[in-house]
Amino acid sequence: NAGVTQTPKFRVLKTGQSMTLLCAQDMNHEYMYWYRQDPGMGLRLIHYSVGEGTTAKGEVPDGYNVSRLKKQNFLLGLESAAPSQTSVYFCASSYSGTQETQYFGPGTRLLVL
Amino acid sequence: TQLLEQSPQFLSIQEGENLTVYCNSSSVFSSLQWYRQEPGEGPVLLVTVVTGGEVKKLKRLTFQFGDARKDSSLHITAAQTGDTGLYLCAGRTSGSARQLTFGSGTQLTVLP
Predict the structure, then answer these.
(1) Consecutive 10-residue runs of chain B (112 residues): their mean pLDDT?
(2) Could you tell me which chain B residue has the CA closest to the CA of A103?
(3) CA A13: distance to chain centroid?
(4) What is the helix (H) or strand (E) element at residue B47, kind and residue range?
(5) What is d(CA A111, CA A99) in angstroms, rounded to the nearest whole number?
(6) Which residue stretches of A1-113 are H helix?
(7) What is the DSSP letter of B31?
(8) CA nearest A30: which of B35, B98, B95, B96?
(9) Which residues, other chains included, contact A74 with Cβ-Cβ below 8 Å and sequence gap of 6+?
(10) Do B48 and A101 touch (CB under 8 A)?
């Protein structure tokens, strides 16, 4: 099992460009999450999904969109990147939503110039 | 405003020393988790505590959940260089049970 994988590992964007981050999990988990991690801020939840075809907003959803067309994949999109979106993005998955272990991917480092 | 405050933010100690990391909030949590994150990797779960006053031990690590379920601590005995990493607490409130709220983290460096 690969667990949770993220693509790409690193990306540099110019302000205004768009991109999609891909998260894939092979554990048949229902729940998937996208976080961003900034220095001194811990992890903040961007969006999450409780099952295929569903998405919900987290703490910091503005400027991001997500889609969960397949159970194993969770996509995070930036339509018009801004320097404030420079961060490390982590995807996670869990079997259910409460008191369950979240399994994290290795992260995507994004730099917006 | 951070819902979960961790202290200290940075901690550097010698191998063999003991240390305690704190996670505090004004909110009540239905459960609280501790994760450890190493450079270039995602966080990995260490423990989940759900009952006020609960104490869990994981080898040299002792985790405690406050009686009022508003705070938690992580104590490491005889730290080793392999304990180096970012320690994150994360909690769920009853109103947002599906979401984890993370603390800002404690960066621990254990020197040989």
Answers:
(1) 85 97 94 94 95 96 96 97 96 80 94 96
(2) B44
(3) 17
(4) strand B44-49
(5) 33
(6) none
(7) E
(8) B98
(9) A23, A25, A32, A33, A34, A49, A66, A67, A68, A91, A93
(10) yes
Res A99: pLDDT: 65
The length of chain B in residues reads 112
A20 bridge partner residues: A77
AA letter at B80: Q
- Stretch (H or E) spanning B71: strand B71-76
For residue B65, give Cα distances in angstroms to A112, B20, B46, B75: 40, 13, 14, 12
- For residue B94, the SS3 value is helix
CB B85 within 8 A of CB B34: no
A-to-B residue pairs, Cβ atoms closer than 8 angstroms: 62
Closest CA to A45 of A55, A30, A54, A33: A33
Half-sphere exposure of B37 (CA within 13 A, CB side): 26
Amino acid at B35: Y
User: Which residue bears the tokens 């989940």?
Assistant: B48
B chain contacts of residue A42, beta-carbon cutoff 8 Å:
2, 4, 6, 88, 102-105
Pair B100, B2: CB distance under 8 Å: no
Confidence of residue A42 (pLDDT cuts 50, 70, 90): confident
Q: Per residue in A61-86, pLDDT tens?
A: 999 999 999 999 999 999 999 999 99
